[in-house]
Amino acid sequence: MQFGLTNENISQNLICSTVIYENNHKSKGRKGIRMLDKFKNSKFYQKLKTQKNARAIYLTIVVLILAVAIVTVITTAANKAKKKQTPVEGTTGQVTTSTRETQKSPSTTCKTPTTTTPSGTTTPETEAANVVSTLPDFTLPVTGTLSKGHDATLQVFSSTMNDYRVHLGIDITTQEAAPVYAAAKGIICRIWTDPMMGNCIAIEHDGDSMTIYKNLAIDYPTGITEGATVNAGQLIAAVGNSAMIEIAEDPHLHFEMTIGGLMVDPLEYFDTAELTSLSVDSNYEN
Question: What is the reported pTM?
Answer without folding.
Answer: 0.57
